[in-house]
Amino acid sequence: MLGLTACMASGDLVPETLAAQGHQDIARAELIAPTTRYQHYVRGNEAEAGGLRAVMTDGRRLDLMLDESHVFEDRMPRLADLDGDGRSEIVLVLTSLTEGASLAVYGVAGDAVRLKAKTPSIGQPRRWLDPAGIADLTGDGRSEIAFVAMPHLVKQLQVWTYSGGALRQVATVEDVANHRLGSPHTAMSAIADVDGDGIADLIVPDGARTTIRALSFAGGRAREIARYRLPAPADGDFALAASGDGPVLSVPMESGTVARIVLSPSTSGR
Q1: pTM (2 decimals)?
Q2: What integer is the mean pLDDT of 68-86?
Q3: Which one of 98, 136, 220, 254 counts the least CB within 10 Å of its CB?
Q4: Where are the domains of the chain?
Q5: Residue 10 — pLDDT band, cuts 50, 70, 90?
Q6: 3-state secondary structure (DSSP) of residue 267
Q7: Whole-angstrom distance, CA of residue 106 vs CA of residue 92
Q8: CATH of 129-269, one of 2.40.128, 2.60.40, 3.20.20, 2.40.10
Protein backbone atom coordinates (compact mmCIF):
# COMPACT_ATOMS: atom_id res chain seq x y z
CA MET A 1 0.00 0.00 0.00
CA LEU A 2 1.36 3.40 -0.97
CA GLY A 3 1.56 5.85 1.94
CA LEU A 4 1.31 9.58 1.24
CA THR A 5 2.02 12.64 3.36
CA ALA A 6 1.66 16.33 2.55
CA CYS A 7 4.72 18.41 1.64
CA MET A 8 4.48 21.84 3.22
CA ALA A 9 5.69 25.01 1.52
CA SER A 10 9.11 25.10 3.16
CA GLY A 11 12.71 24.68 2.06
CA ASP A 12 13.15 23.12 -1.35
CA LEU A 13 9.98 20.98 -1.33
CA VAL A 14 7.36 21.76 -3.95
CA PRO A 15 4.25 23.26 -2.32
CA GLU A 16 0.96 21.33 -2.46
CA THR A 17 2.60 18.04 -3.40
CA LEU A 18 2.54 14.71 -1.59
CA ALA A 19 5.43 12.52 -0.48
CA ALA A 20 5.36 8.73 -0.85
CA GLN A 21 6.23 6.54 2.12
CA GLY A 22 7.94 3.21 1.44
CA HIS A 23 9.01 0.08 3.33
CA GLN A 24 11.74 -1.37 1.13
CA ASP A 25 15.04 0.38 0.29
CA ILE A 26 13.36 3.79 -0.16
CA ALA A 27 11.67 5.15 2.97
CA ARG A 28 10.36 8.35 1.40
CA ALA A 29 10.23 10.00 -2.02
CA GLU A 30 9.34 13.67 -2.52
CA LEU A 31 9.33 16.37 -5.18
CA ILE A 32 11.86 19.18 -4.74
CA ALA A 33 13.27 22.29 -6.43
CA PRO A 34 10.12 24.26 -7.38
CA THR A 35 10.43 25.90 -10.79
CA THR A 36 8.24 28.02 -13.08
CA ARG A 37 10.17 27.21 -16.27
CA TYR A 38 7.21 25.18 -17.64
CA GLN A 39 4.09 27.31 -17.56
CA HIS A 40 1.37 24.78 -18.28
CA TYR A 41 -0.54 24.98 -14.96
CA VAL A 42 -2.56 21.87 -15.78
CA ARG A 43 -3.20 21.27 -12.05
CA GLY A 44 -3.80 24.95 -11.27
CA ASN A 45 -0.35 25.20 -9.70
CA GLU A 46 2.29 27.86 -10.28
CA ALA A 47 5.36 25.64 -9.84
CA GLU A 48 6.45 22.20 -11.00
CA ALA A 49 9.28 20.09 -9.61
CA GLY A 50 12.81 20.42 -10.93
CA GLY A 51 14.05 17.51 -8.87
CA LEU A 52 13.33 14.33 -6.95
CA ARG A 53 14.54 13.25 -3.50
CA ALA A 54 14.79 9.68 -2.25
CA VAL A 55 15.31 9.22 1.49
CA MET A 56 16.68 5.72 2.03
CA THR A 57 15.92 3.41 4.94
CA ASP A 58 19.60 3.64 5.93
CA GLY A 59 19.27 7.42 6.30
CA ARG A 60 20.92 8.54 3.04
CA ARG A 61 19.24 11.42 1.20
CA LEU A 62 19.72 11.21 -2.56
CA ASP A 63 18.69 14.09 -4.83
CA LEU A 64 18.19 13.98 -8.60
CA MET A 65 18.07 17.33 -10.39
CA LEU A 66 16.57 17.55 -13.88
CA ASP A 67 18.13 19.60 -16.65
CA GLU A 68 16.52 22.90 -17.68
CA SER A 69 14.51 21.24 -20.44
CA HIS A 70 12.45 18.99 -18.15
CA VAL A 71 10.19 19.08 -15.09
CA PHE A 72 8.23 16.57 -13.05
CA GLU A 73 4.66 17.59 -13.90
CA ASP A 74 3.14 15.63 -11.05
CA ARG A 75 1.52 15.93 -7.65
CA MET A 76 3.28 12.93 -6.07
CA PRO A 77 5.92 10.26 -6.60
CA ARG A 78 4.69 6.65 -6.49
CA LEU A 79 6.72 3.82 -4.95
CA ALA A 80 6.29 0.26 -6.24
CA ASP A 81 8.47 -2.81 -6.76
CA LEU A 82 7.77 -3.21 -10.47
CA ASP A 83 10.25 -5.99 -11.22
CA GLY A 84 9.99 -8.06 -8.04
CA ASP A 85 13.59 -7.58 -6.93
CA GLY A 86 12.69 -6.32 -3.45
CA ARG A 87 13.69 -2.73 -4.25
CA SER A 88 11.32 0.13 -4.97
CA GLU A 89 10.98 1.95 -8.24
CA ILE A 90 9.73 5.56 -8.33
CA VAL A 91 7.05 6.34 -10.92
CA LEU A 92 6.51 9.95 -12.03
CA VAL A 93 5.25 12.13 -14.87
CA LEU A 94 8.39 13.46 -16.58
CA THR A 95 7.67 16.35 -18.95
CA SER A 96 9.85 17.81 -21.68
CA LEU A 97 9.35 21.52 -22.26
CA THR A 98 9.25 20.84 -26.01
CA GLU A 99 7.87 17.28 -26.28
CA GLY A 100 5.28 17.08 -23.50
CA ALA A 101 4.73 14.39 -20.88
CA SER A 102 5.99 10.84 -20.52
CA LEU A 103 5.69 8.22 -17.77
CA ALA A 104 9.10 7.61 -16.17
CA VAL A 105 10.48 4.92 -13.86
CA TYR A 106 13.42 5.74 -11.57
CA GLY A 107 15.45 3.61 -9.20
CA VAL A 108 18.40 3.92 -6.83
CA ALA A 109 21.75 2.53 -7.95
CA GLY A 110 24.56 3.01 -5.45
CA ASP A 111 24.37 6.61 -4.28
CA ALA A 112 22.32 7.98 -7.16
CA VAL A 113 18.74 8.12 -8.36
CA ARG A 114 18.74 7.08 -12.01
CA LEU A 115 16.22 6.90 -14.83
CA LYS A 116 15.48 3.24 -15.61
CA ALA A 117 12.84 3.56 -18.35
CA LYS A 118 10.24 5.91 -19.80
CA THR A 119 7.39 5.85 -22.27
CA PRO A 120 7.69 7.98 -25.41
CA SER A 121 6.84 11.65 -24.89
CA ILE A 122 3.42 12.69 -26.18
CA GLY A 123 5.16 14.77 -28.84
CA GLN A 124 4.33 18.43 -28.22
CA PRO A 125 4.38 20.83 -25.27
CA ARG A 126 1.42 21.30 -22.92
CA ARG A 127 0.27 17.75 -23.43
CA TRP A 128 -0.03 15.80 -20.18
CA LEU A 129 -0.83 12.39 -18.75
CA ASP A 130 -2.30 11.46 -15.37
CA PRO A 131 -1.35 8.17 -13.64
CA ALA A 132 -4.39 6.12 -12.64
CA GLY A 133 -2.90 3.27 -10.61
CA ILE A 134 -0.20 0.68 -10.07
CA ALA A 135 -1.21 -2.93 -9.36
CA ASP A 136 -1.12 -6.43 -10.78
CA LEU A 137 -3.95 -5.81 -13.21
CA THR A 138 -3.32 -8.77 -15.52
CA GLY A 139 -2.82 -11.48 -12.89
CA ASP A 140 0.73 -12.31 -14.01
CA GLY A 141 2.26 -11.55 -10.60
CA ARG A 142 3.84 -8.25 -11.67
CA SER A 143 2.52 -4.74 -11.15
CA GLU A 144 1.36 -2.80 -14.19
CA ILE A 145 1.13 1.00 -14.47
CA ALA A 146 -2.05 2.63 -15.79
CA PHE A 147 -2.32 6.25 -16.91
CA VAL A 148 -4.64 8.41 -18.98
CA ALA A 149 -2.93 10.12 -21.90
CA MET A 150 -4.28 13.64 -22.42
CA PRO A 151 -7.33 13.29 -20.12
CA HIS A 152 -8.79 16.58 -21.43
CA LEU A 153 -8.32 15.85 -25.15
CA VAL A 154 -7.61 12.29 -26.31
CA LYS A 155 -8.87 10.58 -23.11
CA GLN A 156 -7.02 7.32 -23.72
CA LEU A 157 -6.19 4.91 -20.89
CA GLN A 158 -2.94 3.01 -21.36
CA VAL A 159 -1.56 0.09 -19.32
CA TRP A 160 2.18 -0.57 -19.32
CA THR A 161 4.41 -3.23 -17.76
CA TYR A 162 8.06 -2.85 -16.70
CA SER A 163 10.42 -5.77 -17.28
CA GLY A 164 13.93 -6.26 -18.54
CA GLY A 165 14.71 -2.60 -17.98
CA ALA A 166 12.02 -1.38 -20.39
CA LEU A 167 8.37 -0.33 -20.41
CA ARG A 168 5.98 -2.16 -22.75
CA GLN A 169 2.36 -1.24 -23.46
CA VAL A 170 -0.07 -4.09 -22.88
CA ALA A 171 -3.56 -2.54 -23.19
CA THR A 172 -5.48 0.55 -24.31
CA VAL A 173 -9.01 1.73 -23.49
CA GLU A 174 -10.67 4.76 -25.07
CA ASP A 175 -13.08 7.26 -23.44
CA VAL A 176 -11.46 7.69 -20.02
CA ALA A 177 -10.83 11.00 -18.23
CA ASN A 178 -9.43 11.09 -14.68
CA HIS A 179 -8.80 14.84 -14.33
CA ARG A 180 -10.51 18.20 -14.78
CA LEU A 181 -8.33 20.89 -16.34
CA GLY A 182 -6.97 23.18 -13.63
CA SER A 183 -7.90 20.89 -10.75
CA PRO A 184 -5.31 19.98 -8.08
CA HIS A 185 -6.96 16.56 -7.73
CA THR A 186 -5.04 13.90 -9.66
CA ALA A 187 -6.35 10.74 -7.97
CA MET A 188 -9.70 10.39 -9.71
CA SER A 189 -9.31 6.60 -9.89
CA ALA A 190 -9.20 3.54 -7.65
CA ILE A 191 -8.17 -0.10 -7.63
CA ALA A 192 -10.34 -2.91 -6.27
CA ASP A 193 -11.36 -6.46 -7.15
CA VAL A 194 -14.84 -5.68 -8.47
CA ASP A 195 -15.71 -9.01 -10.08
CA GLY A 196 -14.25 -11.25 -7.34
CA ASP A 197 -11.78 -13.08 -9.57
CA GLY A 198 -8.83 -12.34 -7.28
CA ILE A 199 -7.28 -9.87 -9.76
CA ALA A 200 -7.26 -6.10 -9.22
CA ASP A 201 -9.58 -4.03 -11.43
CA LEU A 202 -9.25 -0.34 -12.32
CA ILE A 203 -12.07 2.11 -11.56
CA VAL A 204 -12.05 5.34 -13.59
CA PRO A 205 -14.52 7.92 -14.96
CA ASP A 206 -15.58 7.89 -18.58
CA GLY A 207 -14.59 10.72 -20.91
CA ALA A 208 -17.41 12.98 -19.69
CA ARG A 209 -16.77 12.07 -16.03
CA THR A 210 -20.48 11.27 -15.65
CA THR A 211 -20.12 7.49 -15.54
CA ILE A 212 -17.78 5.34 -13.45
CA ARG A 213 -16.23 2.45 -15.38
CA ALA A 214 -14.82 -0.71 -13.75
CA LEU A 215 -12.23 -2.24 -16.07
CA SER A 216 -10.62 -5.68 -15.95
CA PHE A 217 -7.30 -6.49 -17.60
CA ALA A 218 -7.14 -10.13 -16.49
CA GLY A 219 -4.99 -12.17 -18.84
CA GLY A 220 -3.91 -8.97 -20.59
CA ARG A 221 -7.34 -8.42 -22.19
CA ALA A 222 -9.20 -5.16 -21.49
CA ARG A 223 -12.94 -5.41 -20.82
CA GLU A 224 -15.51 -3.35 -18.95
CA ILE A 225 -17.15 -5.35 -16.15
CA ALA A 226 -19.44 -2.69 -14.68
CA ARG A 227 -20.50 0.94 -15.03
CA TYR A 228 -22.30 3.33 -12.71
CA ARG A 229 -24.02 6.57 -13.69
CA LEU A 230 -23.33 9.70 -11.64
CA PRO A 231 -25.82 12.54 -11.00
CA ALA A 232 -23.06 15.09 -11.76
CA PRO A 233 -19.51 14.95 -13.22
CA ALA A 234 -16.81 13.51 -10.97
CA ASP A 235 -14.41 16.14 -9.63
CA GLY A 236 -12.10 15.02 -6.86
CA ASP A 237 -9.89 12.28 -5.50
CA PHE A 238 -11.64 8.91 -5.13
CA ALA A 239 -11.68 7.02 -1.83
CA LEU A 240 -12.41 3.35 -1.07
CA ALA A 241 -13.90 1.78 2.05
CA ALA A 242 -14.86 -1.79 2.89
CA SER A 243 -18.41 -3.00 3.47
CA GLY A 244 -20.19 -6.30 3.77
CA ASP A 245 -21.58 -5.86 0.26
CA GLY A 246 -18.21 -5.08 -1.36
CA PRO A 247 -15.89 -2.09 -1.75
CA VAL A 248 -17.61 1.29 -1.46
CA LEU A 249 -16.28 4.02 -3.75
CA SER A 250 -16.70 7.67 -2.72
CA VAL A 251 -16.73 10.05 -5.70
CA PRO A 252 -16.67 13.84 -5.15
CA MET A 253 -18.69 15.64 -7.82
CA GLU A 254 -18.88 19.11 -9.36
CA SER A 255 -22.20 19.59 -7.55
CA GLY A 256 -20.33 19.66 -4.23
CA THR A 257 -21.85 16.36 -3.13
CA VAL A 258 -20.29 12.89 -2.90
CA ALA A 259 -21.65 9.80 -4.62
CA ARG A 260 -21.13 6.47 -2.82
CA ILE A 261 -21.15 3.38 -5.00
CA VAL A 262 -20.99 -0.28 -3.96
CA LEU A 263 -18.64 -1.81 -6.50
CA SER A 264 -20.09 -5.07 -7.78
CA PRO A 265 -21.21 -6.28 -11.20
CA SER A 266 -24.64 -6.90 -9.65
CA THR A 267 -25.01 -3.19 -8.81
CA SER A 268 -23.87 -2.00 -12.23
CA GLY A 269 -26.12 0.46 -14.02
CA ARG A 270 -25.66 -1.20 -17.39
Answers
A1: 0.92
A2: 97
A3: 98
A4: 13-127, 129-269
A5: very low
A6: helix
A7: 8
A8: 2.40.128
